[in-house]
Amino acid sequence: MNLVVGATGNLGGEICRRLAARGKPIRALVRETSDPKRVHALAELGADLAVGFDLPSGAATLFGDGTAAVSWIAFADVAEVAAACVDEPRAHRRTIELGGPETLSPLEVVQLATEVGGRSIEVALVSREDLERRRHAARGETHESFAALMLDLARGDVVPPHGLDWLPGPATTVRDYLAALPWPAAAPV
Fold it and tell me: In whole angstroms, what is the distance from residue 179 CA to residue 186 CA?
């Protein structure tokens, strides 16, 4: 099975089409809020549809028990750091690990999303044992890599501040990020 994240986007959709043309099995990660036409097109390709961390739709799949801390970082903050590094000689030929301004567990993020979005969120947990079984049963490097990534998230990933005064630090909190999402009207929690 080939997991395609962002399968309803331009690149993800094209990857799914090319995998289908080669007769490869596809698991397409979609959101409840994804464009129905694009989701239908994936189903027509024979993709197995899976819903991931889609808080506005009220669903989240968490790895492990959901309590391990993670340094969540907004894509806009990553983009800001990347753009700042282009003309900064001290950033050239260097790896800079980034983490967000706070560490929260996935369950804490779901709780915040419940507060911010004003709706309950259904949580599905995938145990570490199941993730280990998936990793050991993986056929090929790609499947093993995805299983290992899921296990890493289950274990947590706290990244200390980069401490580089010449580089902008991530500024978007999880609450701010969640508040900017397009939350649909829903029944109160």
Answer: 15
Nearest residue to 72 via CA among 186, 177, 187, 162: 177
Provide the 10 A C-beta neighbour count for residue 96: 12
Helix boundaries (H) for 91-140: 106-117, 128-137
What count of other Cβ atoms lies within 10 Å of the Cβ of residue 137?
10
Cα–Cα nearest to 1, from 176, 138, 184: 138
Does the residue 11 lie in any domain? Answer: no
> Widest CA span of the chain, in angstroms?
52
161-180 as b/e: b if 16+ CB within 10 A: eeeeeebebbebbbeebbee
**What's the whole-model pTM score?**
0.72
Specify the length of the chain in residues: 189
The residue with greater pLDDT, 123 or 33, is: 123
What is the domain count for the chain? 1
Tokens of 43: 């189903």
Residue 35, in any domain of the structure: no
Residue-range definition of the domain harbouring residue 155: 66-117+139-179
